[in-house]
Every structure is written in C-alpha cells, then in structure tokens.
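User: These chains co-purify. Model them together.
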Amino acid sequence: MAGSRSFLSRLRDGDEIARLITFVFAGSVVLLTVLLVYELWVGSVLPRHKFGLAFFVTRVWDPVFDNFGALPFIYGTLVTSAVALFIAVPLGLGAAIFLAELAPARVSDTLEFFIDLLAAVPSVIYGVLGIFIVVPLMRDSIEPALKHTLGFLPLFKGPAYGIGFLAAGVVLAIMVIPYIISVSREILLSVPRDQREAALALGATRWESTWKVVVPFARSGIMGSIFLALARALGETMAVTMVIGNAPLISASLFSPGNSIASVIAGQFTEATGDLYLQSLIELGLVLFLLTFVLNGLARILIIVTSQRGSGMGNA
Amino acid sequence: MKRIVGILLACLGLAGMVWAQNTLSITGAGATFPYPMYSKWFDQYHKLHSNIAINYQSIGSGGGIRQITEGTVDFGASDGPMNDEQLKAYQDKHGFPILHFPTVLGADVPTYNIPGVNAELKFTPDALAGIFLGTITKWNDPAITGPNPGVKLPADDIIVVHRSDGSGTTYIWTDYLSKVSSEWKNKVGKGTSVNWPVGLGGQGNEGVAGLVKQTPDSCGYVELIYAIQNNMPYGSMKNSSGNFIKASLASVTAAAAGAAKNMPADFRVSITDAPGKEAYPISSFTWLLVPSKFSDASMRDAIKGFVKWMVGPGQDNTEALSYAKLPKEVVAKELKALNDVQ
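Assistant: Joint model of the two components:
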C-alpha cells in the first residue's frame, strides 16, 4: 500500500466506497455514450455499406426507390442553427449584460425568474407559437420587407411562404435566448468585484469597465453558454418540424422550406417500412451525433484559444 | 400499520391473480388512421366479453408490420397491405403465412385555399397529378379551369402541401396518383412517404390542414374523416367512369363494392381508381394482420371471435365515427377466410 492508510481502513471509513460509487456513476456516462454510438453504428449497417461516404453528399431522399442522402438535412440543421445563433447571441448577451451589470438586483432577480420559466416551456408550445404567430408575421410583414430592402442578396430571394429556414431559425432563437441570458448572467455576476473597481479606479466609465474588462474576463463562460444554445438548436425536433416546411431542399434563400435531421427522423421513423429506409434514418441519427461531436470539439478549441488570449489581458 | 399494508398487498395480489386467470389480454399494434374506431371497438367488445381485454398501440403501420413480424404482438394493423417481400420475411421467420383482414375504409380528399373562390372545385386525375408533379403551376391552368366553368380561378402560383411524416394517408394518395399518371409512377412512385417533386410538408393531418388554411393559393390532401370533422372544404374527383364524385361514406363504400368483384383471396387489394359509377377514386381499406396459426387455442378463438364481431355487428358503429363500412360481399369473404386461422 502506497497510501498513508491501508485500503481496508479507507474502505471502513467510507472514503473508498464513496470513491467507487461515484466512479461507477461517472463511468456510466461514458458507457452510455459508447453504447449509443455502438447502437447507431450497428443499426445503420445497410446504408453504410450501400452508400458509404456518398451518404453525406447525396441530395436525394427517396424512400420509394431506396435512395438516401443526408445532405439536405445536414444543411437544414446547420442553417437553422446559424440563423438562431445570429439572432440569439446579440440579444441574449445584451440582456445578460443589462441584468448582471446595470439593472438593480431586484429587477435582475425578478426577470431571471421569468427567463428560467421561458427555458422550461416545452418545445411543442414554441412550435405552436411559431405556426400561429411567427409564420404569418414572416409571410405578411418580415419576409416582404426583407425582400424589398435586401432582396439583392441571395439569402432573401424567392416566394415568401412564411414557413422555412428563417421561421425555424427565429423560433429556435426564441427558444435558446433564455439559455444564453441565464448562463451568461451567472458568469458575469461571478466576475470578481476588484476587476470592476480596478477599471473604474483607472478612470473607465461604467460601460468601458463592463465592455472592456468584465465581458472579456467572462469570455470563456459566455462562449460556453452559446455552445449550450447551439447544442439545443441542433437537436431541437418538434418546434422545427412545425415551421420548417419539411421539404429536403438545399437553397441559398432563407425563405425556402427545408428540413432538419431531427425533424425528419421524428417524422418518418414510425412509418418507415423497408430495412434500408429504417436504417438510413438511424444513420441520420449517427450523422447528427457526429455533427454535435465535431461542433463541440471546435467549441472547446475555440474556448481554449480565446481564454489563453484572454488570460494575457493584453487587450484589457 | 405494517400488518394492514401486508393484508392490503395480499388482497391486491390475489385480485391480480384472479384477474389474470379470467382475463385474456391480447396485444395489437399498428396503424394510426383507424385508431379511434379500433379503440371504440375494443372497448365495446370488452363490455360484451369481459374476459377479453384488447390493448392496441397506434404506433404506425410500419411499426405494426415490424412488431407482428418480430412476434412481439398478437396481431398487427396496417393502412397499406404488406408487400411480397414482407410476407416472405414473415413466412420465413414463423413457418406459416400472415393473413390480411379489411376492417373499415378510409379516403383522402383534395383540399385547397384560394382567396375569393368559395365554389367546390372539380379535379380530374390529370390535373391532380400535374399539380403534385409541379407541371401545373397556376390555378388558372386549362386542366383545372376546364371542368370548373363559372369558377373564376386566379393566375397565381399553386403552393402544394403534403404530409411530411410517413403515413397511410400518403400511401393512398400516391397509390392513386401512380395509377392515374405514368409519369408519377416512374418519377415518384407510391409509399408511406415519397420524394415529393414540389411543395411544403406538414406534420400530420392537422399540420397539412393548418398550412393549407394559412397559405393563400395552396392545395393539399387530408383524410376524409379529418375534413368532415373539421368542416374543411374539399373538391370532388373524376372517377374511372367519368363522373365527378364528392367523397362521402357512401361513395367510399361504393368504391370497395366495385373492387370486391375482383378481390384476391388474401384481401391485399388497392381500391384507388376503382370501377363503379358512384365510386370515390381515392379510397382504401385498412387491414388487421393476423397470424394464420396460433399455438394458444384460447388466444386463437378470442381473436377469431373478435374479427367475426368486428366485420359483423361492429360495422354498425363505423358511421358514427365517420368511417365507411365494408360492403357485404367483402364481409362474406372475410368470414370464409377466417376459417384458415388455426
């Protein structure tokens, strides 16, 4: 025994038991992930052999003639998530800065309660909200206005159906904003007081101390909140399927209907009759897993790179 | 306290044992379209035969076929008949065939939302196929205006709406389009979900109905029952005899009667575009999938008894729930086929 106490005595004290139990719990997370990937891998053997890597670049999804490709769904997933973050990040971050730095504590805590409430609303409710409010608003006001002003961009061309990438992105943005606000606010509140005081002592205004000192200090935590939001946006099923239009199209226009990985799986799994069809849907699950994995990896790298730069405080 | 709990538990256990001994529990799974009818039937049948409890999970036709093939349920249900490949898979796994029993009828109707048009539109098969293929793009196309004299149709683009989830409704719709249009058959084909040439997808009947209601100049399809229950406007279809027929319970039953003459012994028949003056062309049976051999005699007798009741007295309850009932010829054939279940 290398330790100061014998294994038996540690066992008697409960230290070792606690260590073992918590180790098993922690290990089960890894095991669960491995099992999940294994099941998806084994369950998608037919399309993997038949289509190979072409699965990623094929634009057709044809259950009748057994030809399946994931590209339109990957595209739809990425585009809707990007639109969502494009809207949600500035809004969420702005709100978080206001709540953490500028608002009186009472206002901040009250609002935080509502934000937590928003985060707990089931996604199907957001979907209904999307169908009855966002989609008509898009079709009748926002999309015609965008077409009128920014119509020269390929992003805003084509007929305005209301449903499509833009509507899905907007609904997703509404869904992920509470996450960004809630987590970023906590992070900003946890920035040490002396950081602010030091900046103010050097003659910085309130806004300068917030924007140039507090926010950079909290940068990696804020990034974390954004990636939490991204993860939710990538995997969101119900709300997206209700407003995206569910057509496997790849179009530069945000007005075009599209489809996402999660929504096609949810929509078609129960009635998928052929083996190849069913397994192609399972392979889509694998692709979504891979996508999340890659984006999470990139996020980690980004956080590491930026926090190294941040810790030098060269720009503060 | 402990003793009271113990006695209670013992009573509960005893009651459970008595219940388990006297009640035969049958499990089925599959199609969602006939679910309201089935659940009513199972409930009524349990009231008549308190020793038989039927538990049905409406997980979708594809799921029903998979589960009965795996042998995890006692019977399956499907909106589309099993294909030859699936029948062979079942036979290979179990050593005996599976049988189809039609239970009720359903139909799809074309629904639309054209601002300023309140008239009931008449659709020809060519017009419908053209709209869904994307070759007819405007409402004032001659193929649509031809059969609708007096209706002022706009020169606006048609926005096609279809189901995005796999469903029996789509199967019936695409089965019909495959029969009336060779281009559809070769390009798109039939299935519970297909590679749509054009259009937006909605989740479920309510999703399609919602999109059609909200989107000006749209055209979609929903189940007849859904259209009736929600008072939706829908068009009439030109049938194989050249008459424009509006879908109704009677015209759907007429389609089944028209097809009954050529009914194959295994009941796997498509009745879209069926012959008959009054037949509504986009109709279909929905089927129960019953194994032809049971190792458990009481289970066999219970299921046979139920199917017999369902196609007999059970048919009287169908119209209250807006399902079209089976024609008499089909019922007679089914009762005969029931003898093959051993």
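The two ends of chain B are 52 Å apart (CA to CA).
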